[in-house]
Design brief:
The chain has 9 helices and 17 strands. It has 348 residues and is of the alpha+beta class. The protein has 2 domains: 232 residues, Zn peptidases (Aminopeptidase); 90 residues, Elongation Factor Tu (Ef-tu), domain 3, CATH 2.40.30.40. It has an 8-stranded mixed beta sheet, with helices on both faces. The structure holds zinc ion.
């Protein structure tokens, strides 16, 4: 099977996976990983846990990327057949008007439009309104409630309808690059380690429900009970207008994999990642995070009696929007760094 990383990424991106409905993406990731691992299973919450044995089978390294993406859920259908919704995960409601969305259920996929009054009909004082979900609706062009109910049910999951697109050079845009580039890193790493023996047992984990407060990783970490854990996610790039490097540090697309520093990070593991990057001429950037990170690394670190944890991130513009942007150069550097990290046996 000779499939490029771009093709794998596209396949992951077009597979809808709103938090709570990750079965399809978990199946895809399993298919991409299964030839490169010794065993795999799916836990009760739906996390994929795949294991590649290492030289020392008494030590475990857990690598986790989340499989879920932000989305919406149908909460109400009015008499005219318009749908109302709640957000799943952190969505800026103000970017929703005018978007196309897909409603998923056992009947298949229904396309809808998030409606808003055109500028001609708006009153001056409503133009700059800060929207709540209840101010907006989804128009599936149903004749009435009964007509809508033929194809949509309360509780259906909704995702943005955007297709992945390669932009200039190695830049890609799509919904859900958060965290499908993380899944891509896991898959590319497994391929890079094919035929090699890592220093320790390596667990490749695709977690569920990260966007709802890193829920899936809790049970995955308890189940595996690793000696060391690394979460792989996206982080905010600060290289576009109105972002503040003064507030968040300087993170640029295409400038390398991001290594986090802070209380959520084991200083020995973090230091070793930086040292390895320097030794191997891997491009990297440092992200200072002075609080628990909003990633799987947070739940992982405080699981059970505590897990030594690090965080690697891909810089991302416009996170949680229908058109995020990342650079695949940063993914490549992350895969190289993890491959070298897997050669090292760490002391507990
Ligand atoms: Zn994420």
């Amino acid at each position: 099977m000779n499939i490029t990383k771009e093709d794998i990424l596209k396949e992951l991106l077009i597979t809808p996976s709103p938090s709570g409905s990750e079965h399809a993406i978990i199946k895809k990731v399993t298919n991409f990983l299964k030839d490169y691992v010794d065993e795999y299973s799916i836990d009760n919450n739906g996390n994929l846990i795949a294991l590649k044995h290492g030289a020392n089978r008494n030590k475990k390294l857990m690598l986790a990327a989340h499989a879920d993406e932000v989305g919406l859920m149908v909460t109400y259908i009015d008499d005219n057949g318009f749908l109302f919704f709640q957000e799943i995960g952190g969505i800026d409601t103000n970017i929703l008007p005018g978007q196309r969305v897909e409603i998923h259920n056992r009947h298949g996929v229904v396309t809808g439009i998030i409606g808003k009054k055109p500028i001609h009909l708006q009153k001056r004082d409503t133009k700059a309104k800060d929207y709540d979900a209840e101010d907006l609706w989804i128009d599936i062009s149903a004749k009435d409630k009964e007509d809508a109910e033929k194809v949509v049910e309360i509780g259906d999951y909704i995702t943005y309808q955007t297709q992945p697109l390669s932009l200039n050079q190695d830049f890609w845009t799509s919904k859900a690059l958060d965290d499908k580039v993380g899944l891509l890193m896991l898959i590319e790493l497994a391929k890079a380690l094919d035929g090699k023996l890592p220093a320790m047992d390596v667990y490749f984990v695709a977690t569920v429900q990260e966007e709802l407060g890193a829920r899936g990783v809790r049970t995955a970490t308890l189940g595996i009970n690793p000696d060391f854990g690394i979460a792989i996610d996206v982080t905010h790039a600060t290289d576009y207008p109105t972002c503040s490097p003064q507030k968040s540090g300087e993170i640029k697309l295409g400038n390398g994999i991001v290594i986090a520093k802070g209380p959520n990070i084991d200083s020995v593991m973090g230091g070793m990642l930086i040292e390895l990057a320097k030794q191997q001429n891997i491009r990297y950037q440092i992200e200072p995070i002075a609080r628990p990170t909003g990633t799987d690394a947070n739940s992982m670190q405080i699981s059970g009696t505590g897990i030594k944890t690090a965080l690697l991130s891909i810089p991302c513009r416009y996170m949680h929007s229908p058109n995020e942007i990342v650079s695949l150069l940063d993914v490549n550097e992350g895969v190289r760094l993890l491959a070298h990290f897997c050669d090292v046996e760490l002391d507990n």
